[in-house]
Amino acid sequence: MEKITITLDGEKVAVDPGSTILQAAKRQGKFIPTFCDNKELKPFASCFVCVVEVEGGRGNLIPSCSTTVTDGMVVKTNTERVKKARRTCVELLLSDHVGDCLGPCMTACPAGIDIPGFISHLAKGEDRQALELIKHDMPLPGILGRVCTRPCEEACRRQLVEKPIAICHLKRFAADAISASGDEYLPTPAAATGKKVAVVGAGPAGLTAAYYLQLLGHQCTIYEAHEAAGGMVRYGIPSYRLPRDVIEREAEVIGKLGATYKFNTRLGQDITLDQLRNDYDAVFLGLGAQKASSMRVKGEDTEGVLTGIGFLGDVSRNESYSIGDRVMVVGGGNTAIDAARTAARLGAKEVTILYRRTRAEMPAWEEEIDAAEEEGIKLDLLAAPTQVDKGANGTLAVTCIRMELGEPDDSGRRRPVPQAGSEHVREMDNVIAAIGQGVDASMAEGIKQTRWGSLVADEHTMQTNLPNVFSGGDCVSGADIAVTAVAAGRRAAISIDQFVRGQAVVGDNKSYCHSMGKLDEIPKEVVTPFTETPRVPMPHLEAKSRAKIFDEVETGFTPEQIREEAKRCMECGCRDAHECRLRSYATQFGADVDHFSGQGREYHRDDSHQEIVHESHKCIQCGTCVRITENLLGTSAMGFVGRGFTARVKPALGRELAKVDGTGLQKIVENCPVGALTFKEDKVATLDPKFKRPTPQGAL
């Protein structure tokens, strides 16, 4: 058959007459998105995402899947107008799409840990596989399993039934179980690249950056100002919450991967940033936020007044530290709670936490506050110090004032207002100020800083204004949670890998992620199938036996408890997220889910069939399943129900899926372009398979 000639994106090509534009483009390796195209079916042109421009036409964009080529046709497949139209089509589909690409726990985790995946492994007793999956995105599960503030659990939808899954406790178990087995998990690094990277700071950000850089084949040297690794998780968190051997074993893994530690080496004193930039291919700064905030009261520099992080750091080095009998801790965060409980363990007879708001406003974990009170710590709320003087007998005379709550401040909490005439003096042996931490980045010469003194780095790539210097963690974000620092270290490692290989520094790949919304926006039908199952409580030492020792308070789950708790997971997320074209196109076209607003679909999940799940709330009504049943299978298993805006694709006559002719349903599922029809045996999507292992291109 004689071919005809068309111009495709400026190039003349010979194509078979009778071909569609889409077929011609595919044969030339051109990408045109489509939802409804199927080589076994006639063109349908339902989604319009495959539109192209054709010169000499009526000026309208036309669907490439149903338009036949003509001799001399001039086709443009990727103009700005075409891309805008495709983005609009996708945004319209997203506007009433109801579903999650990934579980809310996973999207809430700053490190993006594959939470549903590792919990599924634990439920089946596959502890090692669980740990491997965790360490794909986060190398410190033993540490974070104990001290993370658990944003994942705050997002967990199980709490719509009773209580969230104990995600952090499960993560801790995976790390502890494999370590106790004597066969510590050690991933295999890529081939050595010959590139060298200096990592400054052995806290969560620096350790994470070094872990992934070693896996990517680069040689890391970790410079740490202190005498041991861990940063603030070692010197700001007591051992009764985080045993030091847990920090040691996870830092040791990074050493076994090839990283070299240089302790007691301070940037700006023992080495300079210029030296590191000259001696290494790239530098990562994970300096932390280890400068205590001032109470801004007269006399706070009096002998006997300590800072929270200074006190905890000293005790971390020496748990025989001497403290007075009467101790006042000022602050309401976890550091204040840690300082108070630590003072009691050192022998203080009376420990009081002074906080200027009420207990409801305290930023510390509720369970930590409860634990402190169980151990005899007193809370003195709606009070604040105004002055500290040295008493005649060597004690501290602390002038305090009562407070009351006024209007909300910038944080959203009601502002504490002093009560006139309520000043009073208290006699103390020590005052510990635990009201916050700041960044001291004076040694990072040449790097742009904010007015608060933190370093400026690109939020996505972590690159600073000095191209070969990257930074992340508290020194960039300000004092924050450890898992956020871990996430920054991983992002930086990916960017550093790109930089030292001479590639464009674009950072980690991120896919569009659809969500059903916040907890109060979730359709009640989502949780209806689940019955109340109590959360497994974490075993712990009794208050009387633990209050004077530094043994770990939380003693850990048994394997039986782990399996029980893991089975509570609701497996939120979509089984088809990594094959879903809607998600892929939303990512590619930069779709804005909020561009169009309106009524969304009703949530309806039909799992009546033995092998297949139908979720009509995810359907984009491309009609593929209907056409396959009618034109290829000769059945009427799937069809359109209703008319106009309310029309929906459902099993024939609106029946349950189990009650229709199931002939060829497997073919229907395999051809669904989104996750509306999936196999029950498929797992909820977690990590994108192409990111399972480090690659020379920097994808982790």
Briefly say what this structure is:
The protein is of the alpha/beta class and 700 residues long. Among the domains are: 4-78, Roll (Ubiquitin-like (UB roll)), CATH 3.10.20; 196-291 and 443-500, 3-Layer(bba) Sandwich (FAD/NAD(P)-binding domain), CATH 3.50.50.60; 294-435, FAD/NAD(P)-binding domain (3-Layer(bba) Sandwich); 581-679, 2-Layer Sandwich (Alpha-Beta Plaits), CATH 3.30.70.
Question: Could you please describe the fold and organization of this structure?
Answer:
Helix 4 runs antiparallel to helix 5 and helix 21 (624-632) packs antiparallel against helix 22 (665-671). Mean pLDDT is 93; it is low at 688-700. This protein has 22 helices and 26 strands. 29% of the residues lie in helices and 16% in strands. The two termini are 49 Å apart. Among the domains are: 4-78, Ubiquitin-like (UB roll) (Roll), CATH 3.10.20; 196-291 and 443-500, FAD/NAD(P)-binding domain, CATH 3.50.50; 294-435, FAD/NAD(P)-binding domain, CATH 3.50.50; 581-679, Alpha-Beta Plaits, CATH 3.30.70. The strands form seven sheets. A five-stranded mixed sheet has the order 2-1-5-3-4, sandwiched between helices. With 700 residues, the protein is α/β, with parallel strands linked by helices.
